TrEMBL record:
Keyword line: ATP-binding, Cell membrane, Glycoprotein, Kinase, Leucine-rich repeat, Membrane, Nucleotide-binding, Phosphoprotein, Receptor, Repeat, Serine/threonine-protein kinase, Signal, Transferase, Transmembrane, Transmembrane helix
Keyword Membrane appears in the UniProt entry: yes
GO cellular component, one term: plasma membrane
Domain named Protein kinase: residues: 714-994
Membership in a protein family: Belongs to the RLP family. Belongs to the protein kinase superfamily. Ser/Thr protein kinase family.
Name of the protein this chain belongs to: non-specific serine/threonine protein kinase
Signal peptide: 1-30
Cellular localization per UniProt: Cell membrane
Organism: Iris pallida (Sweet iris)
Predominant location category: membrane
Length: 1004
């Protein structure tokens, strides 16, 4: 049967068919969409299961509560979806404390374009399946614990733009890129990569940044890198590259940052590098590069830092080097064999922001040009020591008003010190030693009150040390050895209580060794040998408890060796030879357990050679040429006489016949009296705790015999440490409580006063971050403090032990604990308490790694009124003590703040302030200042950068989270350690700052 439709009917039928088709298509699309959504959901849940979070932190709670099927996954924290469809396009879980591994199921997120898992604790390998993500443009896995090789599939992703795998433990070789047409940034610094850099990496023509620093890469720097015309940063430092710098590097005209430092490169610097007109930072340090500095370097008109130190460079520096470098701030050329004159200094006068000029340890000759006086007034470091510079010191150096360190030592300079130099009021270190300078030390030196180090040794200075030197209250090191100085040692010099190093040897000083030497409480090193000093050796030297080196040899001292020298418990080297000393060798020398060198030769000593540690190791030459020493048969000295002659014996017998009865009567009387006294003493000893330590009368009483049992009779096996006034033992009391027992050596002067002061002080303070006192035990013959035992020992051992390592979060917690302890002492206690000796060895850690301040001796703690100062003879430990200590102002709470600032910088850098690297022109604070903020990450402790940074848990509002955290800590440390006390923070302000830093670490 045939049906006929009108035109309208045909149209209606067609519309019905179209609606049916659309309905079927929508249903099919919905089904497919549901299937895709379920794939993304299952992938995310698999990732959550594989990467567990550390319990208790805010990030972990958020993920546990938020990543559930009760809500669409597009609403989950860190998950970003497309606007057009519910598909995952980004996953940002940076700084979420993630642990576990990276799930390979992430490869099912087929629309994923950005994956950021930085700043976590993820371990295991990088899944090879990530290379299957067809749209992935950004892959950020930096700062984790990932290991194993980099999957080759990742270097085959055509969509990839940024890959950052830095600060992990990745090993193996760098994969050969097969297809990275869009790549912009490759950063794999601080890993364990080996092998060579693939030459075909240069095929990635879109690359702008390559950072492969701090690995173990070998081979040569690929010459094919010269094809990367868009490159702005190339960082290959601290690897094991060999060969020459390829000339093709000169093709990278957009390059701004180039680091090839700390490798094994050789050959010459290519002339073509002068084509790098946009270069701002150039690091070529610590290689074996030869040849001269190219003249073409002068084309780099945007240069800010140029460092070629520690190579084998020769020839002159181009005179026009910096003519076209107006922005140059840092020029380092130390440790080469550069020669010629210093004409290039004239070109540096164009650099108005110049901060550092280091040209030491070369072969420069000629004179210091007058242009030195026209250098930037911002110049802080002018270091040209160890060259062949002649002539006089230019007067123009006095124009450099910002100069902090001046080093002209080990040259051939002549003439006198120009008067204009004393205008440089900020100068802290002045090295003029090992020249041929003449004249006297000007009295104007007293105007330079910021000087901490004066080195004028090995010159031809004459006259006397000016009295004005006593105005330099911050002076710590004074080297005037091997000159022609005369007269007596001025009293003003002996008032410098901050002085730690005094070397006046081989001069013509005369007169007595005054008892005022005892004021040098911080002194560590004294060398007065080969002068014309005379008289008795002052017994006041025995009060120099910090000294480790003392040389008084080759003078004209006479009389006996003071017994008080036996109190120098820290001395390691003692030389009294070539004098006119008489009498016996003090037996107290046997107690000097740290002494390893003793020389008493060429004197007039007599009597028995004592026994003990040093006398069992001393050589025969150290005792030779004395009058009548005896004993020590190992050195073939004659035995000491023990028998008397017959006539002498008879005379003594006749004397005893008449004297003995009288003596016997006295002895009987004294014996009876002694019994009575002992009875009283025993009765007093039972209550001595209550009588002698009134501040602690609410603590438990522990008798001597229990302490003896607890420490196995104070066995060396239980010894925890020793100090200048006693020893500390570990003990277990009768009730099982483990304690630390601090036993004082009552023979040490001041020990008893220290005991009483520490008892009273600790009896009054109560705080979580101060070591708690449990009890005391005290009588006339024995004094001990019983303190809580700290099983994790001192912070010093954790910072510098190979078997122990602190995470960044632990370091922040320790900083916060110490700051709260000091805040309590300074601001919350009813007295203001100045601690005076903050350092890692005085910070102890309990079983939970809670930090507590310890060692509250009389020499380290004073009770004062608010905002006042207290004079003290003990200024703390070298490197940590504030610059103003030793001045007439005494000590204040801001001195503790300075020590705390140095401690912060030490915790971040892992460097002690007395590290040997700071024995020259730099100290720890200056070193950090030089690196902050541009090269800050280069000075951070490797334990933080390589493995421990992953404990950092903070909000992710920038590319370099770790950098911001460390920067905040360093800022606090630098502010706390400022030279002027009034410019430092107070501890009550530091505590909330550190709390905020910790919160940013823990909370997203």
């Amino acid at each position: 049967m045939a049906f006929l439709f009108s035109g309208n009917q045909c149209l209606l039928f067609f519309l019905l068919l179209l609606l049916l088709a659309l309905s079927l298509f929508s249903a099919t699309s919905a089904a497919i969409g549901a299937l895709d959504n379920s794939t993304d959901l299952s992938s995310l849940l698999a990732f959550k299961a594989a990467s567990t979070t550390s319990g208790g932190d805010a990030s972990g709670i958020i993920i546990a509560a938020n990543w559930t099927t009760d809500a669409p996954f597009c609403t989950w924290v860190g998950v970003g979806c497309s606007r057009r469809r519910p598909r995952v396009v980004s996953l940002n879980l940076s700084s979420f404390s993630l642990q576990g591994t990276i799930s390979p199921h992430l490869s099912n997120l087929s629309f994923l374009s950005s994956l950021d898992l930085s700043n976590n604790s993820l371990s295991g390998t990088i899944p090879d399946t990530l290379g299957r993500l067809p749209r992935l443009a950004t892959l950020l896995l930096r700062q984790n614990l990932l290991s194993g090789p980099i999957p080759p599939s990742i270097f085959n992703m055509s969509s990839l733009v940024i890959i950052n795998l830095s600060y992990n433990n990745l090993s193996g070789s760098l994969p050969i890129p097969a297809m990275l047409p869009r790549i912009d940034n490759i950063s794999i610094t601080d890993n364990l990569l080996t092998g060579q850099v693939p030459y075909c990496l240069a095929q990635c023509s879109t690359l702008r940044r390559i950072d492969l620093a701090r690995n173990k890469l070998t081979g040569s720097v690929p010459s094919s890198f010269g094809n990367l015309s868009e490159l702005v940063k190339l960082s290959l430092g601290q690897n094991q590259f060999t060969g020459a710098i390829p000339a093709s590097i000169g093709n990278l005209t957009k390059l701004q940052y180039l680091s090839l430092a700390f490798n094994d490169l050789e050959g010459e610097i290519p002339e073509e590098m002068g084509n790098l007109v946009n270069l701002q930072y150039l690091y070529l340090d610590m290689n074996g590069i030869e040849g001269s500095i190219p003249i073409s370097f002068g084309n780099a008109s945007k240069m800010i830092l140029l460092s070629v130190s520690s190579n084998n460079l020769t020839g002159p520096v181009p005179a026009t080097l910096a003519n076209s470098m107006p922005f140059l701030r840092n020029l380092r050329m130390a440790g080469n064999a550069l020669s010629g004159g210093l004409d290039f200094i004239a070109s540096l006068t164009n650099c108005r922001d110049l901060n550092t000029l280091v040209a030491m340890a070369n072969q420069f000759e000629g004179v210091l040009p007058d242009a030195c006086g026209n250098l930037s007034t911002n110049l802080e470091y002018f270091l040209v020591s160890q060259n062949h510079i002649i002539g006089s010191i230019p007067a123009g150096l006095g124009n450099l008003s910002s100069l902090i360190s001046l080093a002209l030592s080990t040259n051939e300079l002549t003439g006198t010190i120009p008067r204009t130099l004393w205008r440089v009021a900020k100068l802290q270190t002045m090295y003029l030693g090992s020249n041929r300078l003449t004249g006297s030390i000007p009295t104007n030196i007293g105007l330079m009150t910021n000087l901490a180090l004066i080195s004028f040794a090995e010159n031809e200075f004459s006259g006397q040390i000016p009295d004005s030197i006593g105005n330099i209250s911050r002076l710590q090191i004074l080297q005037l050895a091997v000159n022609k100085l005369s007269s007596s040692i001025p009293l003003s010099l002996l008032s410098l209580t901050s002085l730690i190093y005094l070397d006046l040897n081989k001069n013509r000083f005369e007169g007595l060794l005054l008892p005022q030497m005892a004021k040098l409480k911080a002194i560590d090193y004294i060398d007065l040998r080969s002068n014309q000093l005379s008289g008795n050796i002052s017994s006041a030297l025995g009060e120099l408890q910090s000294i480790t080196y003392l040389d008084l040899s080759n003078n004209s001292f006479h009389g006996q060796i003071p017994q008080q020298l036996g109190r120098l418990f820290n001395v390691k080297y003692l030389n009294l030879s070539h004098n006119f000393l008489s009498g016996v060798i003090p037996k107290s020398f046997s107690n000097l357990s740290y002494m390893n060198s003793l020389d008493l030769s060429f004197n007039m000593l007599e009597g028995e050679i004592p026994e003990g540690k040093i006398f069992s190791n001393v050589s025969i030459t150290s005792l030779m040429e004395n009058r009548a020493l005896c004993g020590a048969p190992q050195f073939k000295f004659p035995p000491c006489p023990t028998n008397v002659t017959t006539s002498t014996s008879r005379a003594k017998l006749r004397l005893l016949k008449y004297v003995l009865p009288s003596i016997a009567s006295v002895v009987v009387f004294l014996a009876c009296f002694s019994l009575l006294v002992k009875k009283i003493i025993r009765k007093k000893a039972k209550t001595s705790f209550m009588e002698e330590s009134p501040c602690l009368n609410y603590h438990r009483w522990i008798p001597y015999f229990e302490l003896a049992r607890a420490t196995d009779n104070f066995s060396e096996a239980n010894l925890l440490g020793r100090g200048s006034i006693g020893k500390v033992y570990k003990g277990s009391l009768d009730d099982g409580l483990v304690v630390a027992v601090k036993v004082l050596n009552l023979e040490v002067e001041g020990a008893s006063r220290s005991f009483d002061a520490e008892c009273c002080t600790l009896g009054q303070v109560r705080h979580r971050n101060l070591v708690k006192i449990i009890s005391t035990c005290s009588n006339l013959e024995f004094k001990a403090l019983v303190l809580e035992f700290m099983p994790n020992q001192s912070l010093d051992k954790w910072l510098y032990s190979e078997n122990q390592c602190l995470t960044l979060l632990q370091r922040i917690n320790i900083m916060l604990d110490v700051s709260m302890g000091l805040d309590y002492l300074h601001h919350q206690h009813h007295h203001v308490i100045v601690y005076c000796d903050l350092k890692p060895s005085n910070i102890l850690l309990d079983e939970d790694m809670v930090a507590k301040i310890s060692d509250f001796g009389i020499a380290k703690l004073m009770l004062i009124d608010n905002n006042s100062t207290t004079p003290t003879n003990n200024t703390g430990t070298v490197g940590y003590m504030a610059p103003e200590y030793g001045s007439t102002r005494g000590v204040t709470i801001r001195g503790d703040v300075y020590s705390f600032g140095i401690l912060l910088l030490e915790l971040v850098t892992g460097k002690k302030p007395v590290d040997t690297m700071f024995s020259g022109e730099l100290n720890l604070r200056q070193w950090v200042c030089n690196a902050y903020p541009t090269t800050m990450m280069e000075i951070v402790d490797n334990n933080i950068l390589r493995t421990e940074f992953t404990n950092l848990q903070q909000h992710s509002d920038g590319v370099n989270i770790l950098h911001r955290c460390l920067s905040s800590i360093i800022e606090v440390g630098l502010h706390c350690s400022k030279d002027l006390p009034n410019e430092r923070f107070l501890m009550k302000d530091v505590v909330p700052m550190l709390q905020e830093i910790k919160n940013r670490v823990l909370v997203n």
